[in-house]
Every structure is written in C-alpha cells, then in structure tokens.
Amino acid sequence: MTHSTSITEITVRHVPERGQFSLLDGSREIGKAAYREYTVGASPQRIFYHTVINPDFGGQGLGSILVTHALDQTVAAGIAPVPVCPFIKDFITKHPEYAKHSDDVAAEHLQFLEDSLAGD
Questions:
Q1: Of 44, 50, 95, 111, which residue is least crowded by CB atoms under 10 Å?
Q2: Are 31 and 63 in contact (CB under 8 A)?
Q3: Tell me, what CATH number does 30's domain have?
Q4: Looking at the domain assignment, is residue 41 inside a domain?
Q5: Segments forming the whole domain that contains residue 29
Q6: What is the pLDDT along the chain (120 residues), one digit of tens a residue?
C-alpha cells in the first residue's frame, strides 16, 4: 500500500557542489536529480544519471516538477542536458521542447560517468 505524505512547501534548489538539483518540502530534501558536468568537446554538457523521489511523496507529480526545474536551469545556463537517467529520458520524450537542447548519450558519457562515480 502506498500513501502520500502531505506537502507543506515545495521548492527546487540547485546544489552544484553536490552535483544535483534538490527537491525540498520546507527544509527537508525529498528528492534529487543528480548529474555530472561534462566539459569535453566544444560545448558544456550536464549528464543526468539519477533521479529519485522519496516514496512517501510518490504519485504527486513531484518528479516532473523537479525535472522541469533542473532542465530549465540547465538550458538557461547554456548547458546541454544528456539524459542517462531513464526518468529524465522519458520526460524529454514526452516534452519535446527540451529535445532540441539535449544531446544523445554516447559511449564517452557512460565511460566518464563510470570513472567519476567510482570515486564517490
């Protein structure tokens, strides 16, 4: 059985030192979209590799709110999103206005992620 926890105040905050966009209910983190900056090549890219929402807050559209903010801020900064995360990939498919700003996942992105995450 799943249940939804009541929400008081939802905000999304970019936390670059942690490589993520945090979804907050008041001051409590209830979700995140994690990324790694990829600066190899002509233009900067942000590889989104993991999105998660606390299961107690599921089914309320919060993942979409989080991803919308993350993609909007990424595109506004002139950075191309690279959707490794299945949630973000599906979101971009359903919202084609982001597709023109996104770059396809390449083998180099996956190798970079593997190498950079190994140090965490």
A1: 111
A2: yes
A3: 3.40.630.30
A4: yes
A5: 10-118
A6: 344 555 678 999 999 999 999 999 989 999 999 999 999 877 899 999 999 999 988 888 999 999 999 999 999 999 999 999 999 999 999 999 999 999 999 999 999 999 999 876
Contact between 79 and 69 (Cβ < 8 Å):
no
What domain count does the chain have?
Answer: 1
DSSP for the chain, written as a single string: ---PPP-S-EEEEEEGGGTEEEEEETTEEEEEEEEEEE--SSS-EEEEEEEEE-GGGTTSSHHHHHHHHHHHHHHHTT-EEEE-SHHHHHHHHH-GGGGGG-----HHHHHHHHHHHHT-
54: tokens are 């606390």
